[in-house]
User: What shape does this take?
Amino acid sequence: MAEEVTFEGYTPKAPPEKFSAGVPAIASTVALADALEYLMRLRMGRVGKHVRALADRAATRLAEIDGVRLVGNVEDRVSVVTWTMDGVDPEEGVEFLDKTAGIAVRGDHLSAKPLLREYGLEKAVRASFGIYNTPAEVDLLAETVERCLRANRRNWK
Assistant: This one.
């Protein structure tokens, strides 16, 4: 329903979209209790340590790649890592990661336009990690980001 979002406010889309706040996530709400019970059995402290370790690994691996810029204060991250790639549109990067390695990340304004603008950006790529992710998948992410940059550089020539 929002066309533009800033720290000062928002600009709604034209009707009828401006009136569409969305449908309540009824099924998700019903499943929430079971999901929370499962996470409590796993112990949230262990879950937190796991996803933080994966995010730390991803940030470290991505920071080592020439042409990758991490976005945000990486010390404050929990289970996400956000970055840009020199010369690669974030949405094209998402497509590359998906098509070449089956990696699902998000790449656009990330529903955080004001925050991205604070970093001088309009779009970025974000990976989110969960209990089901592994260190090997983080390594595959970094390797595929590197492949994406190499493929993009070849196209520049």
User: Anything to note?
Assistant: The two ends are 41 Å apart (CA to CA).
